[in-house]
Amino acid sequence: MSDDPEQGPERPERPEPAEHQHGAHARTPTRGEHWSAFKESPFLPAVVLVFILAAAAGLFAGSYTYSMANPTPHRIPTAVVGAQDAPRGKAFLDGMEKALNASVEVHEYGSVAAARDGVAEQKVFAILAVARGGGDRVTFDVSGASGASVAQVLAETAPKVGKKVGVPVTVKDIKPLQEGDPRGLAIFYISLAAVIIGFVGAIQLSVHARGLNPAERIAFTVLYALLGGFVIAAVVDWWLGALDLPFVESWLILALTMFASGMVFTMFNTLFGRWAMLPTWGLMVLLGNPSSGGAVSWPLLPSVLGHIGRWLPPGASVNAQHTAVYFGADQHAFPFLVLAGWAVLASAVFWVWRHRHPGGRERAGAHAGVPAAG
User: Do 221 and 203 meet the contact criterion of CB atoms below 8 Å apart?
Assistant: First the structure.
């Protein structure tokens, strides 16, 4: 009832017909409207991620299984001293080539000393030498430090071949692995840690420190790379004693690896936004780590991976670290150039297209609501 006497009693409202209730809400949405609503919802990226993660799981398992589950010799550079002129040495060499499916790549040297220099320079993985005095005995030297998996294959094959062709064979490891790393995997693990934490660190900066401007983002990537590389080296050498590292060199290799890996993600984040993890994971984990030569030496990898791996950050990191630990006097510039090249390329792409990066904050004095390039 109304309190206003001039208006009189209120009349009860009649219910509206069903077709007039709620206006457009009673209309059944079209397929196009359903699709538009789905695209704007969080369900679309969630569904896409379900399929991407399933595919990534299969690719991850497949790439590592293809590369590492059944390593097969493809090309093993081997120093040969005097075997070609000795009938029994030639018979042993032919037997090795047959046993390893003709994968022995012969490099002739004039002396055992010169051949050992070839091992130190990582040009050859083994030395086949025939003892003077009729070629009655063959010495087959392997180098565990050059590649534990290759040395194992050669050390297991040589006595069998010698027995089969009737040639006495002496096998010895002239450059063994360190005692704390009998399988030669520690270098792979520390390089893997630097790669993974490198781009995970960049991901965390993009999530938890989104407001960093370009120069600040690069600076903090340098900082966590330097500190992270130091901690990895300290844990493996000082705490666990697994490897006796040339500490400063190893630390800087790890730091450069982490920085390059972090900037690769930052580059892809600039180019592809929220999907940056896909190319980063593909380049660094699916392709880079299995082809790095860390877990399985490159002569045992599929030939294409063996060549590609050296040009990617994980492979370059393993090569530089491996040489630093075991062949420090013969360090090569190539792996450092590869790491530096990726770091410079990724940083340059990020810097040139920094306005596309989904980070950064407003500059002082900038118009409200207009974010600065970040």
Answer: no
Distance CA 261, CA 111 (A): 43
C-alpha 293/C-alpha 261 separation (Å) is: 18
Give the Cα-Cα-Cα angle 11, 14, 20 (nearest 5 degrees).
145
Measured CA to CA in angstroms, residue 76 lies from 14, 36, 97, 118 at distances of 93, 58, 10, 13
| Confidence (pLDDT) at 366 | 45
The token pair at 311 is 């040009």
Give the span between the Cα atoms of 283 and 197, in whole angstroms: 15
pLDDT in tens, 192-225: 999 999 999 999 999 999 999 999 999 999 999 9
CB 89 within 8 A of CB 138: yes
DSSP code string of 125-148? SEEEEEPTTTS--EEEEE-TTT-H
Encode 106-137: b = buried (16+ Cβ within 10 Å), e = exposed.
beebeebeebbebbbebebbbbbbbbeeebeb
- In sequence order, the 6+-apart residues with CB closer than 8 A to the CB of 258 are 194, 195, 197, 198, 201, 224, 225, 228, 229
- Say if residues 97 and 104 touch (Cβ distance below 8 Å): yes
- Tell me how far apart the alpha carbons of residues 342 and 334 are, in angstroms, rounded to a whole number: 12
DSSP string, 4-63: -TTT-SPPPPPPPPGGGTTGGGGSPPPHHHHHHHHHHSTHHHHHHHHHHHHHHHHHHHHH
Residue recorded with tokens 């007039």: 20
Backbone torsions φ then ψ of 101, nearest 5 degrees = 60, 45
> DSSP string of 271-328?
HHGGGTHHHHHIIIIIIITTTSSSSS-GGGS-HHHHHHGGGSHHHHHHHHHHHHHH-G
pLDDT tens sequence across 97-116: 888 886 888 888 988 899 99
